[in-house]
Amino acid sequence: MSSLPVTPEQPAPMPSSSTEVNQLAARVAALEQRLPANSWLFGDSLLKRAFAVWGHYFIAQLIISIVVLVLFFICTAIFGLSLAGLSNR
User: Fold this and answer.
1) CB–CB of 39/52 below 8 Å?
2) In this structure, is residue 4 part of a structural domain?
3) How far apart are CA 64 and CA 51, in angstroms?
4) How many Cβ atoms from other residues are within 10 Å of residue 43's Cβ?
């Protein structure tokens, strides 16, 4: 077992000039303007945000479940037909 030297991670360098800070502030402002105004994900109410996240989760699970269910039915149909064909011989 080799012993590697442990070095602490260096923090990200902080912006050194006010122009860099102003550029970052402008980028943040531009990103904030791109956010949808009526989205529940960015609402002020915790309850609204919680239901928005839950709704996205529910829709994603619904889509995944439908795909899995269709694949299951296809495999069941193929396997069932092959067993029916074997039993008729």
Assistant:
1) yes
2) no
3) 20
4) 13
Task: Write out the residue range of the structural domain in which residue 76 sits.
Answer: 40-89
What are the pLDDT digits (tens) for 20-78? 899 999 999 998 888 887 888 888 899 999 999 999 999 999 999 999 999 999 999 88
Q: Which of 65, 41, 66 is nearest to 55 (CA)?
A: 41
Tokens representing 69? 């269910």
Instruction: Answer yes or no: is 84 within a domain.
Output: yes
Say which residue the tokens 């550029």 belong to: 23
CB atoms within 10 A of CB 7: 6
CB of 35 closer than 8 Å to CB of 42: yes
pLDDT tens, residue by residue, 47-56: 999 999 999 9
Domain count, the chain: 1
Residue in the structure block whose two tokens are 């402002």: 29
